[in-house]
């Protein structure tokens, strides 16, 4: 069963694709969902937040499938890479109208949170490409990895623009195979020339910026934990439930903030447990933790 927040996101995707971001109002989204405008504001504070949630929804959907393909032991590294490219091309065809609307309208509103998320997606995409190149061609291409990932990303993006903006009806399976062959050629050519434009320090700087974005997520988590503790002290909650919240927050803090590589399955279980506790007024905190967790999962998954 689709939860209400996901339902709102899906309705908004259709409206934005059909009418455009700027021409669609919050009232129209509420009407399409069959809910009051005030009810919609319980889930999203603004149209910008709806757009950000759509971007996160797309990102998580793609991440889950990419991860699933990567875990298929029946596929060789190159076969998995091919299948992942094919899946992403198909997803762009499926949501072509929405993506075209973003490009033509410059529809992604500018604020710090959206800028940070868009950067994370770009960083994740390049990191994902670099690691897939290592899987397929070996670590000996490390010297050229950022150059290769940059060129491959640009090559795929241009073909996507043919599909999205020029409405070309490409066979995505054939296109994926063609792209893999061109990647083979590109890797061989760069290795033979032994030339690189971007070097290890560029990659380190790029990853450093990405790590700073991760640090921002951890800061947000710590801020939420401290706010929950403060609210616990002034809310009328039974000592038993209060102790459960405090103990869970301590484990969450230890796992998420104090470990270099937190086990996200453990974090996910802790957030899920907090959601099940019979206390009111804290739902927005659990929702915020869940959203940050999904972002972190997305970023880590693309680096695997």
From TrEMBL:
Alphabetical list of Pfam families matching this protein: TetR_N
Q: Which domain of life does the protein's organism represent?
A: Bacteria
List all membrane-crossing ranges.
none
Keywords of this entry: DNA-binding, Repressor
Kindly list the GO molecular function terms attached to this UniProt entry: DNA binding
**Is DNA-binding there in the keyword field?**
yes
Domain HTH tetR-type: residue ranges: 2-62
**Residue spans binding DNA:** 25-44
Q: Does the keyword Lyase apply?
A: no
Question: What protein is this chain from?
Answer: TetR/AcrR family transcriptional regulator
């Amino acid at each position: 069963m689709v939860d209400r927040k996901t339902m709102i996101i899906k309705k908004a995707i259709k409206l934005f694709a059909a009418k455009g971001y700027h021409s669609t109002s919050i009232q129209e989204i509420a009407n399409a969902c069959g809910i009051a405008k005030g009810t919609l504001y319980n889930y999203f504070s603004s149209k910008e937040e709806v757009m950000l949630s759509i971007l996160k929804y797309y990102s998580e959907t793609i991440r889950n499938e990419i991860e699933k393909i990567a875990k298929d032991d029946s596929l060789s590294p190159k076969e998995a890479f091919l299948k992942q490219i094919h899946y992403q091309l198909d997803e762009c065809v499926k949501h072509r109208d929405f993506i075209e609307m973003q490009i033509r309208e410059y529809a992604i509103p500018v604020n710090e949170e959206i800028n940070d998320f868009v950067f994370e997606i770009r960083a994740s995409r390049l990191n994902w490409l670099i690691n897939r190149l290592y899987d397929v061609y070996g670590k000996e291409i490390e010297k050229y990895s950022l150059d290769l990932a940059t060129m491959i990303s640009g090559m795929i993006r241009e073909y996507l623009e043919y599909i999205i903006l020029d409405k070309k009806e490409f066979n995505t399976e054939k296109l994926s195979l063609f792209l893999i062959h061109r990647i083979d050629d590109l890797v061989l050519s760069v290795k033979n020339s032994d030339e690189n434009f971007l070097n290890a320090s560029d990659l380190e700087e790029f990853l450093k910026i990405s790590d700073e974005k991760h640090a921002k997520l951890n800061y947000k988590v710590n801020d939420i934990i401290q706010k929950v503790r403060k609210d616990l002290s002034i809310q009328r909650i039974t000592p038993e439930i209060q102790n459960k919240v405090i103990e869970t927050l301590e484990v969450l803090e230890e796992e998420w903030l104090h470990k270099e590589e937190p086990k996200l399955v453990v974090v996910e279980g802790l957030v899920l447990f907090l959601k099940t506790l019979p206390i009111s007024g804290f739902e927005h905190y659990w929702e915020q933790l869940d959203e940050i967790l999904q972002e972190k999962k997305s970023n880590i998954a693309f680096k695997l």
